[in-house]
Design goal:
The structure is a homodimer.
Chain A (H helix, E strand, L loop, with lengths): L3 H8 L4 H16 L9 E6 L3 H10 L5 E7 L3 H11 L6 E2 L15 E4 L6 H10 L3 E4 L7 H14 L3 E3 L7 H11 L6 E9 L12 H4 L3 H17 L5 E7 L12 E7 L5 E7 L5 E8 L3 E4 L10 E3 L2 E3 L6 H15 L8 H19 L5 E2 L2
Parallel strand pairs in A: 1-2, 1-4, 2-3, 4-5, 5-6, 7-10
Antiparallel strand pairs in A: 7-11, 8-9, 8-15, 9-10, 11-12, 12-13, 13-14
């Protein structure tokens, strides 16, 4: 069985390792249009699971972001990371000492990669400690939580970004560019899917108290975010259906959800997400003038795609390298919003709230506030 | 604007014309395993619209089927077809003389290609005249009608097939073969879409009295049939949502419908159909062991596809040639059921009934009888 670490890699249908080797040159391509400064964003990673490992490795190729600190509840991990990344003792925290970050002038931002349901608490703590926040998706369990986190960061004067790494991914950016340039015409239809077969039945992703929800929260959010950047609009309404074929494994969280959204310009999105099977990670956007398809669309790469004009041949990059360099420029140089702010994440959370509400109400159409 | 004649051709993303030129050799490939006899099925076409024109042209390459008669209400068409296809006067009928087919020993079968809502009446008439029936899809407006048509043909001792041409299409057959051989593993998910942007707002397809319904009846049925041959199972339930962005053009029939189905083996299908945009014609089947994708899946060809093993490179054929040769063998040589019988169509009609019922009931889950 594939575990989650493998999942987005599986979606790439191989060749994922090439992304790393091509990262440096490709990243230069993505960021070449942006002005450079010498300052680096000094980042602490909070939550040293498999994704944090991936981020740390990707950050070794960063130009504008640098891993300088960690927050972990596991002393053995602290020791290992300290050695591997040459992290000074004064930049090593645990979950009881997070508030002390405020006394550390050598850390600019904390990247929160803890289990999803802990994001709310951790963002509030990091904001209170006066550090900028990068938080993995989903930002929160609910829109209400997300709003509280945004407000807390704003009050603290700290920036809040969410790890929607695809907004720095060249194929994704090209689809957005084409749509914005009108090359697809008025968008009429989106068919997005994202899911994988979850492995270890004891993992936190299957516990509601840690995960907030199931496939929808974890990876269905890619389909939602993709429908929003595929249309460039906010959905007006949603209908949704939940299917559970394994009520034991998925006793606490959703297994498979299908949902539909309506957009102001007339576009309809139909989306599916699951923890029950692989080979599900496609973005498909149809406009009056053409289409764009990314498949795999949401994995760690390589992203592949085509449009009505032919194959999309964009640079293959390491998403996390590009994201961290890109967000460093947003934070340090006040670069424009890359559609990865807390406000963007709040919009996804409103959709997630509405999807769960529609399911509770038997598939009823829910207007999104 | 594309008209419907262009639609399935558009889905092919070009190269459609090559299908004709390759038809003979490819057809031989499809049928080579079947024993041959010299008898030809002598066919009359009823309803000489654009699709009948396509069928007639395709039949010029047939080995086992021959166009020998026509039924048309338009004298000018009768004259033109008589000349083009050398049809004897005694084999030319209009809608008032259909019953006289029973006195014509030179016609074995009638292929009914009239507007959808007329299929019921015409199948009943042809069966009563003692001729085998091939009827375009959808077989009927409702499952009740379809059952009546099946019963009438059975009582008359006549065979009833429906123009589900893809069951003779090599890429489609290969996907079915892989699924039956277990190469995809247990099927868990299907994502099928079929639609096109309808042109002329005055055409019969937009009139409920002639069309029975809209996109769902006309092309959504491909997504339904594809979910059935993709899983090899009959759906247990359906949920459905209708979206209408142009209530004037689509005053009488459905414009866009999304629907979901659940299957006994645990598979879920999510499908979409529309009359409102192009670039929608994909079959996607995910099993525990792999996937199969056809895109374009439902047009007149060339059908293209891939699986987890790589590209599907099957012969490109003219679907209508293969269908008519294949059905000739079913009728004349009692070849096994090619999943194109009235009973097969009845199962699709039960799903269509349930989809419309779910829409009427606000997306409620409808069990399929």
């Amino acid at each position: 069985m594939a575990n989650r670490r493998d999942f987005l890699q599986i979606l790439s249908l191989g060749a994922g390792l090439t992304a790393l080797s091509r990262a440096t040159s490709a990243r230069a391509g993505v960021l070449s249009s942006l002005p450079k400064s010498d300052r680096q964003l000094r980042v602490a990673l909070m939550g040293l699971g498999s994704y944090a490992t991936r981020v740390a490795e990707a950050m070794e190729s960063c130009q504008r972001a640098k891993l300088v600190g960690i927050v972990t509840g596991t002393p053995a991990k602290a020791e290992a990371w300290k050695k591997k990344y040459n992290i000074p003792d004064k930049n090593i925290y645990n979950y009881q000492t997070v508030s002390q970050l405020k006394n550390n002038p050598d850390i600019d931002a904390v990247y929160i990669i803890t289990p999803n349901s802990l994001h709310h608490q951790h963002v509030m703590q990091v904001a209170a400690a006066g550090k900028h926040v990068i938080c993995e998706k989903p930002l929160a369990d609910t829109a209400k939580q997300a709003q509280e986190m945004i407000t807390a960061c704003e009050k603290a004067g700290m920036k809040l970004y969410v790890g929607y790494r695809l907004h720095f991914e060249p194929h994704t950016r090209e689809v957005i560019r084409m749509r914005e340039a009108g090359e697809l015409g008025t968008i009429l239809f989106v068919d997005n899917t994202c899911g994988f077969k979850i492995g270890d039945p004891t993992q936190w992703r299957l516990k509601k108290a840690l995960a907030g929800g199931g496939a929808l929260m974890d990876v269905g959010i890619y389909a939602i975010n993709g429908a929003r950047y595929g249309t460039g609009e906010e959905p007006l309404w949603v209908t949704a259906q939940e299917i559970k074929t394994d009520p034991v494994k998925f006793a606490e969280v959703d297994e498979t959800i299908t949902f539909q959204m309506g957009f102001p310009g007339g576009a309809i999105a139909t989306c599916s997400t699951t923890y029950n099977f692989n080979n599900l990670g496609r973005l498909y956007v149809v406009g009056e003038k053409g289409f764009a398809e990314l498949d795999p669309a949401f994995g760690y790469g390589p992203i592949k795609g085509r449009t009505h004009k032919g194959p999309l041949n964009q640079p293959v990059i390491t998403h996390q390298t590009a994201q961290m360099d890109g967000l460093a420029e947003c934070i340090l140089d006040n670069k424009p919003d890359p559609n990865m702010t807390g406000h963007e994440a709040l919009r996804d959370m409103k959709v997630i709230d509405a999807i769960y509400e529609s399911i509770r109400k038997g598939g009823q159409k829910i207007m999104i506030g």
